[in-house]
């Protein structure tokens, strides 16, 4: 199943520059027909400019269909780095191709350079932006970003994680307002080495940072205060939770 999705993604990516220019007039005609189908009058004052506005909105939200995402994957000349690179919490907004409804969320991109080749960090955000500004599936969006980065930069490994809320599920249908969809694409070293994959996920989620902060606070407290007795344990818990502790009793 995963292989099939990748093939569809490759075909989708290869056709990205074959889309004709947006026909705003044709979209506007369609919007007028929708308004009429809803029983509205497209000529009433509040709706006269709506077809044009909607046409321009769809042109903007699908602008990535007419851009080559691979143009952003160009290594920085003269700069090298051999350790993991992560850009997380990249805001994305895309269009579900099943309902033409937006889905909005965050994209996290990690890669391990090969031979020191790196990208400008803004290029990773632009890569996510270009692919998200299309009629998409979240699964395909995740795979598109990962494959393009992996093929263009040829790093040791690539990991892409996207978490998003889909209005086609939160505003209609089952109407689960708090539901989020999480997808991932893992290539190269991240797929073959579980420890590297776990390290990247910990850095993306921040769980490892919280654990390290907790350990540091415990060591600091016990080195100066000890933890004997119930009061001592309560004060230690307060310090671990907040980084502060109240005035000593007695």
- Approximate shape: globular
* Helical amount: 40-55%
Radius of gyration, taken over Cα atoms and rounded to an integer in Å: 24 Å
Strand residue percentage: 15-25%
In the CATH hierarchy, what is the superfamily of the domain at 75-205?
Answer: GTP cyclohydrolase I, C-terminal domain/NADPH-dependent 7-cyano-7-deazaguanine reductase, N-terminal domain
Mean pLDDT: 85
Structural class call reads alpha+beta
CATH architectural group of the domain at 75-205? 2-Layer Sandwich
Number of helices: 10
Unreliable spans are 1-9
CATH-assigned fold name of the domain at 75-205: GTP Cyclohydrolase I, domain 2
Give the CATH class of the domain at 75-205.
Alpha Beta
In spatial order, strands of the major sheet run 3-1-2-4-5
What is the chain-wise order of helices and strands? HHHEEHEHEHEHHHH
The biggest sheet amounts to:
5 strands, mixed
What is the number of beta strands?
A: 5
Terminal residue distance: 66 Å
Main features:
250 residues; alpha+beta; GTP Cyclohydrolase I, domain 2; five-stranded mixed sheet; 10 helices; 18% strand
């Amino acid at each position: 199943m995963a292989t099939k999705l990748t093939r569809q993604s490759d075909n989708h990516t290869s056709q990205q520059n074959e889309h004709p220019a947006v026909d705003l007039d044709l979209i506007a005609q369609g919007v007028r027909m929708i308004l009429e189908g809803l029983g509205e009058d497209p000529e009433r004052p509040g709706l006269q400019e709506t077809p044009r506005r909607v046409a321009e909105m769809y042109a903007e939200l699908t602008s990535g269909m007419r851009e080559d995402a691979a143009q952003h994957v160009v290594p920085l000349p003269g700069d090298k780095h051999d350790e993991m690179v992560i850009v997380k919490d990249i805001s994305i907004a895309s269009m579900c191709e099943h309902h033409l409804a937006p889905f909005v969320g965050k994209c996290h991109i990690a890669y391990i350079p090969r031979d020191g080749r790196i990208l400008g960090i803004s290029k990773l955000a632009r890569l996510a932006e270009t692919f998200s500004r299309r009629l998409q599936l979240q699964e395909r969006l995740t795979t598109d970003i990962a494959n393009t980065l992996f093929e263009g930069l040829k790093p040791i490994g690539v990991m892409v994680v996207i978490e998003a809320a889909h209005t086609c599920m939160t505003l209609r249908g089952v109407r689960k307002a708090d539901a989020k969809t999480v997808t991932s694409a893992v290539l190269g070293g991240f797929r073959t080495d579980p420890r590297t994959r776990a390290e990247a996920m910990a850095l993306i989620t921040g769980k490892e940072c919280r654990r390290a902060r907790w350990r540091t606070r415990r060591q600091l407290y016990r080195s100066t205060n000890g933890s004997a007795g119930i009061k001592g344990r309560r004060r230690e818990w307060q310090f671990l939770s907040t980084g502060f502790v109240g005035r000593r009793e007695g």
